[in-house]
Amino acid sequence: MLNRCPGAANIRTPMLTIKKCPQCGDEVEVFSNNVSVKCSNCGFEVYNDILSCVQWCKYAKECVGEETYNKLMAQKKQV
């Protein structure tokens, strides 16, 4: 069951999205498992607009793995 969870698919196998930096307009690569990334041009912090099931699912740690779970939850607290 856990290896088929559609909500965590982009976390276990990250997908790349190219976003525009709101500060300078440069392209910023954001992976689906990142909460935020700094623009390499100006340093502005660009946030990923994903709402992850990791925040509420009781199986999240087991589903995505403890290391990934802890990383995402730590990043969420910083935001």
List keywords for this structure.
20% strand; 3 helices; single chain; alpha+beta; 79 residues; two-stranded antiparallel sheet
Description:
This protein is of the alpha+beta class and 79 residues long. The chain has one domain (2-78). 28% of the residues lie in helices and 20% in strands. The strands form 2 sheets. Strands 1-2 form a two-stranded antiparallel sheet. It has a two-stranded antiparallel sheet with strand order 3-4. β3 and β4 (45-47) form a beta hairpin. The protein starts with 8 loop residues before the first helix and ends with a helix. The model has no long low-confidence stretch (mean pLDDT 80).
Number of helices: 3
End-to-end CA span: 31 Å
Sum up the overall morphology in one term: elongated
Biggest sheet layout: 2 strands, antiparallel
* Number of distinct beta strands: 4
Mean pLDDT: 80
Helix content: 25-40%
Strand content: 15-25%
Order of helices and strands: HEEEEHH
Low-confidence stretches: none
Total domains: 1
What order do the strands of the largest sheet run in, or round the barrel if closed?
Answer: 1-2
Using only CA atoms, what is the Rg?
Answer: 14 Å
Q: What structural category do the secondary elements indicate?
A: alpha+beta
